[in-house]
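ok trying again, last paste got cut off:
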Amino acid sequence: MAMGTTDVELLKREWQNEKVASEILQFEAALVLRAREQIQLLEETVEEFTENGVDDLVLSLYQMDLDRTLFLLRSYLQIRLQKIEKHMIHISKTNLWDWLSE
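nice, full thing came through this time. structure:
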């Protein structure tokens, strides 16, 4: 991982790679876990900011970051699920089975 590369940037790269690859790629479990944790923190922050009347611009920026991260994670998982559904027989007969999440 390069210096200064955020988990969202890594997730975006994995999402792009998964999108263009014809076969399913290795599941990035640690990255997905970190993204879920970041989403939870952002949700808590947005909720806290809403309750405390924080400036609308600041709140909007946090909400935008939350929405972007949610989109990337959902889309990454949806693409993988579509590939699994489409190629289940092939995946089950190859070493690609090991690349799936639990």
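cool. The chain has four helices and no strands. The longest helix spans residues 56-86.
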